Amino acid sequence: MARPLFQALPGTRDILAPDSQRMRALVEVFAEEAELAGFGQIVPPMFEDIGVFTRIGDSTDIVTKELYDFEDNGGRRIALRPEFTASVCRAYVQSRPVPPWKAWYAGPAFRQEKAQKGRYRQFDQVGAEVIGSHDPDLDTELIAMAAGFYKRLGLTDVTLLVNTLGDKADRPGYLDALRTYFGEHLDALSEQSRTTLAINPLRVLDSKRPNDAEIVAGAPVLLDYISDDAAKAYGRVIDGLSTLSIPFVEAPRLVRGLDYYTRTTFEFASNALEAAQNAVGGGGRYDGLVADLGGPEDPGVGFALGVDRTLLACDAEGVFGAVVPTPDLFVVATTEGTEALALTQELRAEGWRVERAYDGRSMKAQMKAANKSGAPVALIVGESEATDGTVSVRPMGEGDQVVVPRPELIPQLKELLP
Ligand code: AMP
Fold this sequence. Notes:
alpha+beta; BirA Bifunctional Protein, domain 2; Rossmann fold; 3 domains; 16 helices; 21% strand
């Protein structure tokens, strides 16, 4: 086949049925979970003033390297959203809903990453945020919601990692300790990590490079540097997870890709995926982000789950398969008239899934298509049926074909079909 003139760009792809149906089903499961927990949906714009996203932190790859940004006709600096949290906080500051405000979302996010399996430049997330409460039970509830969602999809091989990043005031002491520690191991660190160290030592902990791993494993842990308040909140989350029997692993060196996190941070890793792309979701508290966006000192907590990777994890575990819907009825019409058109629309209006053949194909070809469609019943309108005002009802499995007068067709089908 000749190469098409245009192809989807690197890191983007077309999601066709039935995969797209599966994706929608996933979002529906998430929406149910979120709405049971009292969240309302927010649909924020896909692009914002770039300043909304640069507030995420100037030491994150997402902001420094991966933003899709451009200038619009009004000379505004715009960026496609690389994630939702900043937009949700911007919306909170703008609309001032009554706190604690609980919002869930679903949709695409954009990052100029090196594309590979499980890592795309346009990918989908579902997520939830609560703004305006310090209560650590909300952290636990959010984690429970994400864990419940994975469970409902049928995923069993997902590990929950939990940590606390303490408060902003705890940070300088810890950063000093990290600087000292990594400074002692500078020669062994990768070049990228040495650069990161100069900008934000915390992010060195996030290095997935094998040489760094050994050094990171011996680094000081934040838990030893946090305030009593932050430690108490963390303890409450750990107790909460135990009360709810949600399995978790404490990961004292877990930091996440975004700079704004404080206190609780968590990540879900699928053990069925390759290590480099096994993060299927994550989140945490961001107690300063709303203020950074010009709002009150209101705290926030939330998470985002990667839809594409979650579905890859489902594939790897053989769960939540794509459902290919089969039609309830297949209309076969060999007349010159508009019988097929009219009958098909009437049946669809009754709520049945109806398929038909096009392009005036032969009776034989249409019957073959009917068979292939998986519809349990074919409805045939030939010349004699058209003249008599009848339709032949042919069960595709067992049973005989019967001729039914047109007015009796729908009542009879209602008895025949579930
Ligand atoms: P983050 O906003 O970076 O915490 O990402 C939340 C989740 O989104 C991750 O755990 C991934 O599952 C997913 N994700 C992030 N970046 C990508 C990407 N480039 N391609 C696919 N999924 C992604």
